[in-house]
Q: What sequence folds into this?
């Protein structure tokens, strides 16, 4: 099929605005998937995606559609995630398209991620087709959606298509709009073959499979391909398209989206954003790839069984191939043994990655408390990056610690404003200004320390707003703050797994909470064991592990009381001596329970 009859587009929207359901209807309407094998959220292939009702990975699919003008068009669709932690997936999908269908929930209107994804599409110069979805809901407010479309996104309201992914309203209008408004594939007239790798995965039998969009030329089995970033050459074994299962084809031509199987067996050899060309006639210029993504949240991942270390290492390598926003490096801990320091885009990204390691690779892991990357300014002006509290230098060797901040756009109902502002203050944030979106909703623009929103901010936002609040954020600047390293000591020995960097004002509360939790979980010991939270040499919180007492007077029947006292005094002396030379054995599951909480 020639290039003018090909269209590449993706579906972008806020979380739960109906992207995957609309994709299901498009697959049905074009007969890409037969009705008898059709399932809900058909493109969400991961168990995790179906369980949580969210899209984690972008899913490409090729459809054929006979249009009203009598021609049959090839439509390459990408269903994308909506959650802020997976915005990198969205930007990668946009780079492989010429147009985007922007979904807006008719009941909820324009939300935080709708705005963020629309700006991503604008910056890539894509043609946007606005679609107001779920128009069959009783609470649908089309007039408000049209107004927000013009006021917030500056898109003319008359361009909007009314649809419902659930009942199939407006599906044909969307397909016709894609053909009429989305331009044919760009850069197709470039003389050499150029293919963009937008994703990849590892197959145990076939090695590395590259998901790619062909911009110019053609790729077929038997060609010798070349990776432009490294110059590595390998033979192409198979090419094909997604329908949505992988289907082998003879050739991938300009404008096609498909997969390439080659001789590459090592996950580290192929990089997302790389350009594939042919070795016999290599291209001179690479395609514009993706800007290098910087992880914002770090934590340590350790195997529960030390014998699973190599298995965990292999699992991380394969996940890294399939998720280029994820990074890792090896580290070791006195308490937990050998493991890896891993970087993620956010907390949901971290949670999903850990769950994928457990399910897809069958490795039991525990993770340390999440932290962010701090900048430590030394006396000589040198700036040092610290992502692990253990690596923080002594207080006398640096001038200040700077922490990362985020600029957040928080959409909430009017009546929740007071409660949300008090949480923002509690989290050391500042609300810069508020914008009224409509009669019922406002948008708060806030600056917050990234470290403060890591654990429970999103959950609390959702519970206070009864699910109607939404947040989008981007990384802001680094700001100096009064931060300190808090150590947890058990019987005088610091435990590196529990070290954290906290704000001085909050250190005492967090220290007391952690000491109490540990005192509950660590099993009783033969002698009194102190659990202490300390900043430098100063103890700020303390609790004791329960003492186990052996009944030394059990065999002492009757007689003088001094016999019992003598035995008890002997026991007391023994415990004193034991305390001086004894070591506390903390079972691994104690660490797991504390770190899980």
A:
């Amino acid at each position: 099929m020639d290039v003018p009859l090909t269209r590449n587009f993706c579906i972008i929207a806020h979380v739960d605005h109906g992207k995957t359901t609309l994709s299901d209807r498009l697959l049905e309407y074009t007969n890409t998937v037969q009705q008898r094998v059709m399932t809900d959220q058909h493109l969400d292939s991961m168990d995790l995606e179906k369980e949580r009702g969210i899209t984690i990975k972008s899913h490409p699919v090729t459809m054929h559609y006979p249009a009203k003008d009598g021609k049959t068009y090839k439509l390459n669709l990408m269903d994308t995630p909506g959650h802020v932690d997976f915005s990198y997936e969205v930007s990668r999908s946009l780079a492989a398209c010429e147009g985007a269908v922007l979904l807006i929930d008719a009941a909820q209107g324009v939300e935080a991620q709708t705005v963020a994804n629309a700006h991503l599409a604008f910056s890539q110069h894509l043609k946007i087709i606005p679609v107001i979805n779920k128009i069959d809901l009783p609470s649908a407010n089309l007039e408000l959606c049209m107004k927000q479309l013009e006021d917030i996104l500056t898109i003319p309201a008359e361009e909007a298509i009314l649809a419902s992914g659930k009942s199939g309203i407006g599906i044909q209008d969307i397909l016709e709009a894609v053909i009429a408004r989305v331009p044919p594939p760009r850069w197709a007239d470039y003389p050499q073959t150029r293919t963009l790798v937008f994703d990849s995965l590892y197959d145990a039998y076939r090695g590395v499979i590259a998901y790619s969009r062909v911009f110019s030329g053609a790729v077929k089995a038997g060609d010798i391909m070349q990776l432009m970033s490294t110059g590595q050459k390998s033979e192409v074994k198979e090419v094909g398209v997604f329908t949505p299962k992988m289907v082998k084809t003879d050739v991938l031509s300009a404008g096609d989206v498909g997969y390439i199987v080659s001789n590459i067996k090592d996950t580290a050899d192929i990089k997302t954003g790389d350009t594939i060309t042919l070795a016999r006639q290599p291209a001179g210029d690479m395609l514009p790839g993706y800007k290098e993504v910087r992880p914002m949240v770090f934590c340590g991942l350790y195997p529960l069984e030390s014998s699973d270390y190599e298995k965990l290492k292999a699992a991380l390598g394969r996940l890294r191939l399939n998720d280029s926003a994820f990074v890792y490096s090896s580290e070791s801990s006195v308490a937990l043994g050998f493991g890896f320091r891993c970087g993620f885009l956010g907390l949901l990204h971290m949670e999903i990655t850990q769950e994928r390691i457990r399910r897809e690779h069958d490795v039991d892991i525990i993770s340390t408390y999440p932290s962010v990357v701090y900048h430590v300014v030394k006396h000589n002006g040198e700036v040092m990056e610290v992502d692990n509290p253990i690596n923080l230098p002594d207080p006398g060797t640096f001038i200040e610690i700077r922490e990362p901040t985020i600029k957040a756009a928080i959409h909430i109902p009017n009546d929740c404003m007071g409660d949300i502002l008090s949480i923002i203050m509690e989290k050391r944030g500042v609300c810069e200004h508020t914008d009224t979106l409509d009669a019922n909703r406002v948008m708060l623009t806030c600056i917050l320390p990234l470290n403060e929103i890591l654990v429970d901010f999103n959950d609390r936002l959702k519970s206070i707003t009864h699910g109607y609040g939404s947040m989008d954020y981007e990384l802001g600047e680094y700001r100096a703050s009064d931060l300190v390293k808090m150590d947890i000591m058990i019987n005088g020995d610091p435990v590196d797994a529990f070290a954290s960097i906290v704000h001085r004002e909050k250190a005492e509360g967090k220290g007391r909470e952690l000491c109490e939790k540990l005192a509950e979980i660590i099993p009783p010991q033969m002698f009194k064991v102190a659990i202490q939270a300390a900043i430098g040499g100063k103890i700020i919180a303390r609790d004791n592990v329960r003492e186990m007492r052996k009944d030394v007077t059990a065999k002492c029947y009757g007689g003088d009381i001094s016999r019992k006292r003598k035995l008890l005094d002997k026991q007391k002396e023994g415990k004193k001596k034991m305390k001086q030379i004894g070591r506390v054995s903390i079972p691994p599951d104690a660490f797991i329970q504390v770190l899980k909480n």
